[in-house]
Amino acid sequence: MRTVAYYKGCLASLSAKELDTSTQALAPKVGLELIELEAVTCCGAGDIHEAEPDYYLHLNARILAYAEATGADTLMTVCNVCTLNLRQANHALKGDAALLERVNDNLVTVGAPPYSGGVEVMHFLWLISVGEGYELLKGAAHKGLKGLKIAPFYGCQILRPSKLLGFEDPDKPESLERIIAACGGEAVDYPAKIKCCGFPIIQAREDVALAELIQPIEQAKEAGADVMVTPCPLCHLSLDAWQSKLRKQTGKDFQMPILHLSQLIGVAAGLDASELKFKRHVVSVSAVTEKLAV
Amino acid sequence: MHDVVVVGAGCAGMRAAIEAFDTGASVGVVSKLHPTRSHSGAAEGGINAALGNAAEDSPEKHAFDTVKGSDYLGDQDAIEILAAEAPGDIYQLEHWGCVFSRNGEGKLAQRPFGAAGSPRTVYSADITGHVLIHVLYEQTMKRMEQGSTPMHVYEEFFAWRLAVEDGRCVGVVCWDLVNGGLRLITGRSVVIATGGMGRIYRVTTNAYACNGDGMAMALHAGVPLKDVEFMQFHPTTLYPSGVLITEACRGEGGYLLNRDGERFMARYAPNALELASRDVVSRSETTEIEAGRDVSGSMLLDLRHLGAERIRTRLPGSRELALTFAGVDPIFDPIPVRPGAHYHMGGIATDNWGATELEGLYAAGEVACVSVHGSNRLGGNSLMETITFGRRAGQAAAERALSAAPAGTVSDVPLVQAQRDLETLLARKDGERPWKIRDELGSSMLENFGVFRYTERMQEQLEIIVALRERYEHVVVEDKGDVFNTDLTQAIELGSMLDVAWCMVQAGLAREESRGSHSRPAEFPERDDERFLKHSVTQWTDGGPELSYKEVRMTKWQPEVRSY
Amino acid sequence: MKVALKIWRYDAVAGERALREYEIDAPVEATLLDCLDIVKDRVDGTLAYRKSCRMMICGSCGMRMDGAAVLACKVRMSEVAEAGHIPVISAMGNMPIVKDLVVDMEPFWGKIRAVTPFLQPGYADPGEKENIVSQQRMDVIHKESLCIMCGCCVSECNSMEADPDFLGPAALAKGMRFVGDARDQATVERLQEYSGEHGIWDCTRCYFCQERCPKGVDPRDAIAKLGAEAVRAGIDSDMGAKHAKWFVTSAKTTGWLRETELVPKTQGIAKSMKEVKFAMGLLRHGKVPPPFPPHVAKHVEEARALYDLVKHDGAQGAAGIVQGEHALSRLEHAEDGGAAAERGPYGPGSFAEPYLPGEETT
Fold first, then answer.
1. How high does pLDDT run on average in chain B?
2. Residues of C in contact with A209 (CB under 8 A)
3. Mean pLDDT, all residues of chain A
4. How close B21 comes to chain C (CA, Å)?
5. Across residues A223-246, what is the average pLDDT?
6. Ranges in chain B, pLDDT < 50
7. What pLDDT is stored for residue C360 in this prediction?
8. What does the alpha-carbon distance between residue A50 and residue C317 come to, in Å, rounded to a whole number?
9. Closest to C152 in 3D by CA, of C61, C266, C278
10. Taking CB atoms and an 8 Å limit, are A95 and C310 in contact across chains?
């Protein structure tokens, strides 16, 4: 078993609870022991990074410090945005001793532990798409997905900027496809799988965001996908919850179910309904569950 | 009709245009590239002025270093003007917002450079040309929306020929690259600032756009060129691409090594070592290479001892270039470098205000020869020249335009003639593609008119050029279209290169001495002030280039032995 | 080496597109630009593309290779050729095509001009000599001043694709070049201008611009710096700014994002009322967590205290992003790994240490 510190982030705690329950249920099956971090906050998303960048750095340093304090050397995330934010802060702190010193002074002053740079931030996706995690995944996904046609949606911040993320080729990523294959599904390819879902501006610039959002959903549909899967709960929220707005704006009713990564694997691994929590999705997942007789 | 038409939008062109505009003239800028694409932007190391921020300095010292660097061929009154006005020009650029590097006191930082007695090279890391061209374009964009006759930039207009009427220059015939078609753009004054012609050589730091167009245009309009035989070979061009690795690498303390790791410059310039004048360093390198102490035909520029931090802050551009084009990280390995054609000291003969012998025609920057550089240029002086003399030419051109009697309608004869010649060129179906002629010119010039020159080889080169010009008469342009026809403009550029090359070799053969960057080690190894302390003057005739000579203007300094 | 290319040709006069394949012989160190030159010289003289410096500084040769914007002079072809891959070369995106690989850059330059791209020193008397500015202060705009205006960022901008009027990464980075310049006195006017409908808050944070930029300008970070400065200056009436500020408020009160209140806090009560039906749909699926009781993080008082502490640290506004650039610049080239780094500058296998003639060699 590999022990990792687990940072679930805001959405998995609240509006995307299904992401948390399915991840926690799945983790032991893929060799991961999760130490849930409690004394942490929102990572700030691109918003605090933009509005109060020094505060963003401190909030993320605090998360890293608490993760380090568990004794684990890996901090596991389940969200693209959290991954970029934490990795960016981690690089800045590890690469600049003076900066780390100042931030640590502040952390200690408020009663938090200091950070010494001993943690690597990894998205759950990365832990199970290669190496031992992948082998265990293959074993765990015993129920299979019976050739279900799945459109992987990466989104932005798990791939770019690649010098901060660097897990795979940002233009030709493969991790989701590998996982889909390991679970017995059929990955469907389409150009917009690495483009933006529009979530960051979906409230402030709805029309612009919807013009972005329609691309992956429409292309996935045209490519014959039964379902889409994404490693980011923010992308999930816009793909799933905002599909109704697309229908309202364009008249196109895609009825495309959207799954979190852990749910997709969870289905293949035989998790039950209380762990998968499909009822929480806005676009019904019933077409998929029927096909797979879940 | 504009008051002032500026041809070329690099540092000299834009500075001239800005000054002309600020003097009250209506200005049209003609450029075959978008202004920020001009080759000035590729300059790296810095721009010289006696500010005295790094150490004690004075315009007089700057002038002397320049005079000595020119191997006493520079016109000293022009050099004194450059040295005196440079500080004010630099401060003006800074007031416009130029992003220069700063020293510990927040003043403009200055670094040591080749053949400079005091560190006076103002810089921005190692991308000085880039920040200069962008501050000038910012000021250009400002004036493009200012006043009742805002500045107009004819972007991607290829200037081909000057229009001359009644002994006055009245405009320039251009090919509209984006839409196609010839246009005559007229002006009461015309300033040529089209840069150099390094592309005549196969190994060059210069951009594709540097073909000597402006020099050829002036030549064919009857304007004389000065000192055409003097081509500077920059000692540290990257192997194999020829891309510039700035002198600033040596200014920051880099070493030049041969195959054995020896700092060979100690044998050639015991005092200045790597920071000797560029011609001295290029000759030293070539000697080492010819003696077999090279690594793949190159010497090695060693920055390892500077440390990663210094390289990353002061020389990041050079590091990027070495990594991308040679696969070498200068933090860990030395960079392979060799001499490459870099800068042309000669050019269109002008006075100290940029005026040529043709009324209404001015020139500034690398295309001009005032002469501030004589037979060899100091690093950092070229950028300064573009600003100081660009400004002066712009001012003079504007004042003349504003005081000249209003011109009547300009004849369209040059336009009609150009149209006919164009049709002849485009009509040709069978013939040779230009690239072969271009490649052969480039290789032969490097071989026969490079760092070291020999009588027999120069004579051979003249024959080669004549033969190439013959073949050029039958060159074929494949693209017959109107839209973005660079096949056409590249063919025309080749013609300019051949003409200018001919002038260069002829003048080089006639100069029977070694001075500055013109070195004849076998036949005339010494400088001959008695016979050749004078500028060569080339004029174009129907039979080809014709040579004469002109006095060097001396104010303070008499020629001395030049050693570093 | 043999290089094969597929190039999207475009004839504007006839309005026709066609994908053509070319196979050429090129030297092993050839770049994509070198290969295009060989095609134009020896195979098809009608191929149109821009070029000049061939050393990544003029910005002429921006184009797409396999759908991603690159500088043609920066791409070494040896790896591509060795892998037997035939890349598809096309013109940059988000700009109209003039011919083949040449785009009309006028929309690009128009947006640059729209941000007032020249220093506005106001009534400050420049004095005779230079303005005194420390290197550290100049470093605030170091990255933005690297921009060569190649258009690669604009080509890939997801926001601009959806909203063609978006000022875009290049123009906003240019704007930050001035906002961060100590000598410019028009900061407030600029921030107000850039905070308009098609400005800072239009950016979708896809980071394509940052990924594609060949010079390391990091335009998305420049936009974030503008956002930071705008919020600091109180120029925050845009919904995007309100959205961002609510994250800050959430973090320092409950630690976790107060999702439910995010909508009215961003869009205002009036607009949110129109969203009631949509919100009801989300509520039914539990996507709208009830604001009470608030979901409070453990030891949230630490986060609250941190907020007050950092206010006094002097890394306000854009400085909060600039401070990380020193460390992040090391990521440009894999310096902390690689064979060269392992042996060090003078380790076994490195080139000899330099010596002066006559010095004793060890």
1. 96
2. 162, 204
3. 95
4. 16
5. 96
6. none
7. 63
8. 9
9. C61
10. no
Query: Contact C263/C278 with Cβ under 8 angstroms?
Result: no
**What pLDDT score was predicted for residue C337?**
55
Q: How confident is the model at residue A14 (pLDDT cuts 50, 70, 90)?
A: confident
Look up B310 and say whether it is catalytic.
Answer: no
Could you tell me the CATH number of the domain that includes residue C43?
Answer: 3.10.20.30
CATH 3.90.220.20 for domain B231-342, yes or no, is no
User: Which chain C residue is nearest to residue A162, measuring alpha carbons?
Assistant: C211
Asked whether the predicted pLDDT for residue A158 surpasses 60, the reply is yes
C119 touches chain B (CB under 8 A): yes
pLDDT above 60 (res C362) = no
Structural domain boundaries enclosing C82: 2-103
| Nearest chain C Cα distance for residue A61, angstroms | 11
Fold for the domain defined by A2-124: Glutathione S-transferase Yfyf (Class Pi); Chain A, domain 2 (1.20.1050)
Question: Is this model's pTM higher than 0.90 or not?
Answer: yes
Chain C residue nearest residue A54, CA to CA? C320
pLDDT tens column, C83-106 = 999 999 999 999 999 999 999 999
- Would you list the domain boundaries of chain B? 231-342, 413-551
Nearest CA in chain A to C305: A110
Say how far apart CA C63 and CA C72 lie, in whole Å.
Answer: 7
Q: Burial of B558 by CB count in 10 Å (0-12 exposed, 13-18 middle, 19+ buried)?
A: exposed
pLDDT tens-digit map of A88-99: 999 999 999 999
The nearest alpha carbon in chain C to B52 belongs to: C129
pLDDT of C334 > 70? The answer is no
Q: Which CATH architecture has domain B413-551?
A: Up-down Bundle (1.20)
Determine which one of B188, B278, B377, B511 is catalytic.
B278
- With an 8 Å Cβ cutoff, is C349 touching chain B? no
CA distance C158 to A194: 11
Work out the minimum CA distance from A7 to partner chain C, whole angstroms: 12
Which residues in chain A have Cβ-Cβ distances shorter than 8 Å to C263? 203
- pLDDT tens for each residue of C21-31: 999 999 999 99
Put simply, whether A36 touches C (Cβ < 8 Å) is no
A130-292 CATH fold: Rossmann fold (3.40.50)
Q: Which of A38, A99, A237 sits opposite C327 (nearest CB)?
A: A99
Q: Name the closest residue on chain A to residue C164, using Cα atoms.
A: A208
Contact A203 C203 (CB under 8 A): no
According to the 3-state scheme, what is the secondary structure of chain A?
CEEEEEECHHHHHCCCHHHHHHHHHHHHHHCEEEEECCCCCCCCHHHHHHHCHHHHHHHHHHHHHHHHHCCCCEEEECCHHHHHHHHHHHHHHHHCHHHHHHHHHHHHHHCCCCCCCCCEEEEHHHHHHCHHHHHHHHHHCCCCCCCCEEEECCCCCCCCCCCCCCCCCCCCCCHHHHHHHHCCCEECCCHHHHCCCCHHHCCCCHHHHHHHHHHHHHHHHHCCCCEEEECCHHHHHHHHHCHHHHHHHHCCCCCCCEEEHHHHHHHHCCCCHHHHCHHHCCCCCHHHHHHHCC
CB contact under 8 A, C257 and A42: yes
The CA-to-CA distance between both ends of chain A, in Å, stands at: 28
User: Is the reported ipTM for this assembly greater than 0.90?
Assistant: yes
pLDDT number for residue A26: 95
Interface contact C204-A200, CB threshold 8 A: yes
Planar angle of CA B424, B425, B427, nearest 5 degrees: 65
Selected residue of C250, C302, C332 to mutate for chain A interface (largest A Cβ count, 10 A) = C302
User: Mutating which of B484, B488, B494 best tests the C interface, going by the most C Cβ atoms within 10 A?
Assistant: B484
Q: Which residue of C243, C325, C326 is the best one to mutate when testing the A interface, meaning the one whose CB has the most A CBs within 10 A?
A: C243
Question: Is some CB atom of chain B closer than 8 A to the CB atom of C356?
Answer: yes
